[in-house]
Amino acid sequence: MCKWPEADFERKRYNPLMEYKDFEKALSRLENIVGELEEGELALEKALKLFEEGVKIARFCSTKLDEAERKVEILLKDKQGQLAEEPFQTGEDPDQS
After folding, report:
1. Which residues lie below 8 Å from residue 17, measured CB to CB, with a gap of 6+?
2. Can you tell me the distance from the alpha carbon of 75 to that of 52, in angstroms, rounded to the nearest whole number?
């Protein structure tokens, strides 16, 4: 008879960040949470749960932004490994203000 370790049967806790695999979905959810909290018509317990989820999502978004910044820095390094400063292009023509 095979015995399974007890750890295999433990329920995994729900992690709301697992459903946010990309920055845009997480940011959208964060905006929704902020909107709900700003309405001010939530029960205290619900508001605290939303606030906690919002903090976790904000950290997730911050991490994603930091990762993107590091990637941009890597892409902008010159042959000597120094950062070469280049203006950010928004896609708009600066002469058409």
Report:
1. 26, 56, 57, 60
2. 35
Domains present along the chain, CATH in parentheses: 15-80 (1.10.287)
The full length of the chain comes to: 97
Give Dmax over CA atoms of the chain in angstroms: 78
Element (H, E) at 39: helix 23-39
Model confidence pTM above 0.70: no
Complete DSSP assignment for 51-62: HHHHHHHHHHHH
Backbone angles phi, psi at 11, to 5 degrees: -75, 135
Query: Which residues share a beta bridge with 83?
Result: 77
Mean pLDDT score of the chain, rounded to an integer? 77
